[in-house]
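Appendix B. Chain record.
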Amino acid sequence: MKAKQFVLILFVILLGVTSESYAQRRVINTPRRTVVQGPRGTVVYRKKPVVRTVRSLPQSAVVIRYRNVPYYFHGGTFYVSNNGVYIRTVPPVGIRIAALPAGYVRVVVGPRVFFYAGGIFYTLDEASSEYVVADPPVGAIVSQLPSDAAEIEIDGKPFMEYNNIIYKQVNIEKTGYEVVGKLDE
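Structure tokens predicted for this chain:
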């Protein structure tokens, strides 16, 4: 009886080692690509976005409640709390802040003025003197995207994606990125 148990345990161990090494080979030899079929066509993610977390925030972080969800704002970055850690997130359209993050740039699209920082577009609410997170305007050109923007292909053409906003690389004097639409349109 003990011999059968020993053979069974040995078999399970060998099976586990073999499947692990096979899985490792597959991961190494297979490029990391995620394919999504959406309304804009086939979207292929060449590089998956990275989820960034921190265990604590500085005491100077500001809590902004928006639709009963507390967002934490510090250094131009928004966070939400989840299971004892803070996850870097993109703020919802409509959330308000008192001052723009350092390093913002002014972007004019038609008659409207936007402020861009860290992948987020803001407008100024004249009545309250607060800055409101806005939908990115199609046609806006920015000089850089956040480091966690994803490289994607839509029907074989290269684009960048950040927060479901699609950017096309353009060259006007120097490299920039033009807002061309949303993934979920």
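Further analysis of this model is presented in Appendix C.
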